[in-house]
Amino acid sequence: MSFKPDRRQLLKGAALGGPALLASASAVAAPQPPALTARSIRVADLASHFDVDPTIHNLEAGYWSIMPRVVAEAYARHTIEVNRSNSIFARNVLPGEACLANGSRDAQMAIARQVGCSPEEICVTRSGSDALQLLIANYRGIKAGDAVIYCDLDYDATIGAMEWLGTHKGARVVKFAMPEPATTANILAAYDDVLKRNPDAKLLLVTQVSNRTGLVTPVKEIVTMARARGVDTIVDAAHGIALLDFQLADLGADFVAWSVHKWTSAPLGTGAMYIRRSRLADIDIAYENHHLPADNINARLPAGTINFAALLTIPIAVDFHFAVGATAKERHMRALRDRWVDAVRDVPSVTMAVPDDPARYCAITSFRLKGMDSDDRAKAVQQRLFDKYRILTVWRTGIAKGPVIRVTPGLYSTAADVDALATALRAEHAMFG
Taking every annotated instance into account, which residue ranges of this chain make up the domain Aminotransferase class V (predicted)? Predict the structure, then answer.
């Protein structure tokens, strides 16, 4: 039995309940979109699948992704379905597909299909930050005095969790700075150096794509280097999954987490945690969550009510990813990034915070203007771009070499969006003299 809202019932309720319910009824009653099939969406048509504010050049897709229309519509339908069914859905009392257990299974299977692992190795979380914090805080291999290592380009939420290991578990927390300008060779040398200097290290945090600068690190080589010294790695793949064309096996890591609401374009409040099956016992269950067996990865997620509609929408978001195709998607995002970077290469007062090596960048690229030597000046650049040119970027701090302006085109972005940025930078490059 499936609890699909009936159009007549919804319209009758709308007459009593007002315009908001009527709008919901229209969304549910709309014809179902055609099925998404592999590589059925051309990148040339990608922007047409999104509803965006046409008055702003939104180059801040690094926060989270706008859902494509087909995903947003599915999310609206699921929201109404869950709201109508209430505990009937969540308590798994109905036969067939209309229950939470099946929805959770389908979400895990979709993500596993996307990243190339077993569904039993995937746990759907409330965000990438939640997943990473759970992996770090519940890693069982730390005792007082052991070293744990992170770098300046790691994400604030993960840095906080690594510091927590120091204040709550007695770990010795080691921070180092990523080289800049970076190359594959000096990145690997920096990790090799910090591991050699800390032979008591047990845990290393590695960010695949820095949320601060956009630098792409050689994760597999770092994981291999750490493992040879008996050091485990936790990989933050929030800006890698569904943007870079790879599978989890290509990283070689045992513990990975990411945000499904970023480049997979699922609804807000969705993340994922991967634990290699053979390493499950090395991550403790969350807050004595004995509602599930200890050999179930979902016991690593705190018990509590989640956004069921967002969970149910994950499979169609993954379908959309495959409809574009991982290879075409990465190539398209690189082209948008290269378009604006190449347009300002001859402006000496604009400096990129990532190297030109295509292996070390993708969609995200941060820049500095000459004289942008403080957080206040970085904020001023962000404000100038928005107020004068209607271009949204974001300033990022915490980088050893100084603050940057982060630019992140989205799947919805057009050539006109990145061209507007290049034009603005050529006009404003000397704003600090």
Answer: 102-384
